[in-house]
Design goal:
single chain; Fumarate Reductase Iron-sulfur Protein, Chain B, domain 2; five-stranded parallel beta sheet; 19 helices; FAD/NAD(P)-binding domain; alpha/beta
């Protein structure tokens, strides 16, 4: 214990700040699943509304009252089928969806009592049981002879590929990394999806057949959009966002400044989280889910002081109020109306960050000239993502872009007649797994109609 305490108090970035048992407890399931009895009790609270507002609030349009009714009558398999026919990644979405701002916020029980039906946990209960028993509800139709290229094996790409395969098309998925899953595998806090669930769900999706995934095939350096168009009857782009916005400060960044998404990815892939180095005093710049996931996990690894700094007010943060409260319960301090101004360094490593207080002036954010300096031996960037150079170069001159992302219509069609897109790489992406799934599914239906003419 003395050794663990010594590592915790040590300045600088260090691994092994906490003992293994403590780490295991810290990174256990943040939302333990319901057992059978708990699911029945929870399902009994649903009013089974006719024009259910929860359905409207769900980006994938799952018939929520229907699947909850099926759980309440003991038909768990039927509930899973109801969920998966609209959202083939329903198991992951049950774990990571901000239900507090979507279906559960719209729940009639929430408005009447301030306590919604536990829709997310009920969805997890049904889909987990179906996956555990490997119940497959969808059969592949006869082969059409058409082939479709899907770029990216993330939520949008997987949802698109599954629906296309179900219609009988042959799908080749080109994935930049060595594992599928995209955001679900690399970009979500480890305590939200434990026990390698992301890969189990990919295996479940792939079981329909007709889908081939080729790894280490990033758009731009290894595959070319024009060649994909020549080789396949249609193309779906769902590669997400590979680049990260910079802090925009002058001078070379010292050691200890890194992207929050890289930190989260390291944790997701680490077999031994005790080997992930973390600072004692940490500052995270940003106000979204990534910032919260990064900050909370830094605390769980043994960081003593973790502060999130966001340039606008609390009400403007992309992280939901629940996520903000989750951060607070883990000892993370959230400070608003602060923007980075200058990094401090010592012996080539970051030692602190100076931030300027901000304010709104006629709907425009401006600095006040007043600053504060926070000590830090590690600073994380969580201020949004971009295409990245490879993807931008690969798309330039071919596709119409909107504010740096691929412009699409409501069906996911792009400015090219045989190319569709969905997820975060589009102008309608919002960094949510459930939205990416909906867009991938909808694009697949549009592609199928086009190929069936």
């Amino acid at each position: 214990m003395a050794l663990a305490l010594d590592k915790r108090l040590r300045d600088g970035i260090a691994a092994g700040r906490l003992e293994s048992k403590r780490l295991k407890d810290n990174f256990s399931d943040v939302h333990p699943p319901l057992d059978g009895h708990e699911a029945l009790v929870a399902s009994d609270r649903c009013y089974f509304c006719y024009d259910a507002p929860c359905v409207t609030a769900c980006p994938t349009g799952i018939d929520i009252p229907q699947f909850i009714r099926e759980i309440s009558t003991g038909n768990t398999a039927g509930a899973a089928e109801t969920i998966l026919e609209q959202n083939i990644l329903g198991g992951m979405c049950a774990r990571v969806c901000p239900t507090e701002t979507l279906c559960e916020q719209a729940c009639v029980r929430e408005h009447a009592e301030g306590k919604p039906v536990q829709i997310g946990l009920l969805q997890r209960f049904a889909t987990d049981e179906a996956m555990a028993q490997n119940k497959q509800f969808f059969e592949r139709k006869s082969a059409t002879g058409k082939t479709v290229a899907v770029v990216g094996a993330g939520p949008a790409g997987l949802a698109c590929a599954h629906r296309l395969a179900m219609h009988g098309h042959d799908v080749t998925v080109y994935e930049a990394r060595k594992k599928p899953g995209g955001l679900n595998e690399y970009g979500i806090a480890a305590y939200k999806t434990v026990d390698d669930f992301a890969q189990e769900e990919v295996d479940y999706v792939m079981a329909i057949g007709g889908i081939d995934i080729q790894y280490n095939k990033p758009l731009g350096s290894k595959i070319d959009l024009e060649k994909l168009r020549q080789k396949h009857d249609a193309v779906f782009l769902g590669m997400g966002l590979a680049g990260v916005n910079a802090l925009g400060l002058k001078g070379k960044e010292p050691a200890g400044v890194m992207d929050a998404v890289d930190f989260i990815s390291q944790l997701r892939q680490a077999k031994n989280k005790g080997k992930i180095a973390v600072g004692r005093r940490i500052v995270v710049i940003g106000g979204g889910m990534t910032a919260v996931d990064c900050a909370v996990q830094a605390k769980l690894l043994g960081a003593e002081e973790v502060t999130i700094c966001y340039r606008r007010g609390q009400e403007n943060m992309n992280a939901s109020r629940y996520e903000q409260e989750l951060a607070a319960t883990h000892g993370v301090v959230i400070r608003n109306w602060l923007q980075p101004q200058k990094l401090k360094s010592k012996s080539g490593a970051v030692a602190g960050i100076t931030l300027e207080y901000t304010q709104m002036n006629k709907k425009k954010l401006e600095g006040t000239g007043v600053t504060i300096t926070l000590e830090a031996d590690q600073v994380f960037r969580a201020i949004g993502q971009t295409f990245g150079e490879d993807n931008s170069d690969a798309l330039s001159g071919n596709l119409k872009l909107d504010k740096g992302r691929i412009a699409t219509n409501e069906e996911g069609a792009t400015s090219l007649s045989d190319v569709w897109a969905g997820g975060d790489c589009t102008n309608s992406g919002d960094d949510l797994t459930v939205t990416a799934v909906a867009q991938g599914r909808n694009a697949a239906e549009s592609i199928n109609r086009a190929l069936s003419v």
